[in-house]
Amino acid sequence: MVNAYLIVSAAVAFIAIALGAAYMSGALDPVIEKFGTWFFNEKAEAEEKKLQAQGLKEGEDFMKSELLFTSYFWLLFLPFAVIYFVA
Known about the structure:
It is a single chain. The chain is 72% helix and 0% strand. The longest helix has 26 residues. The chain is elongated. The mean pLDDT is 77.
C-alpha cells in the first residue's frame, strides 16, 4: 500500500515538473493558444444562445441587453473618460 502512494506521488511530481519545464521553455504555447481559442469560441456560442433566448439578434438591441454591463468591456474606456474629464 505504501508503495502505491509512493509511485502515485512520484508520478504526479514528475508530470508537474515536466509541465513546468515545457511551460517555461515555451513548448506549451501552441497548446495554450488552442485551449484559449476553444474557450473563447465556447463562450461566444453561449453568449449567442443567451441572446437568442432573450430574443435579441447580433448587432441589434445591444444597449438593451445585459451584456454591455455584465462584461468588463467598459473598463477599456475608463482611462479615456478620466483623461477627458480631468483635462
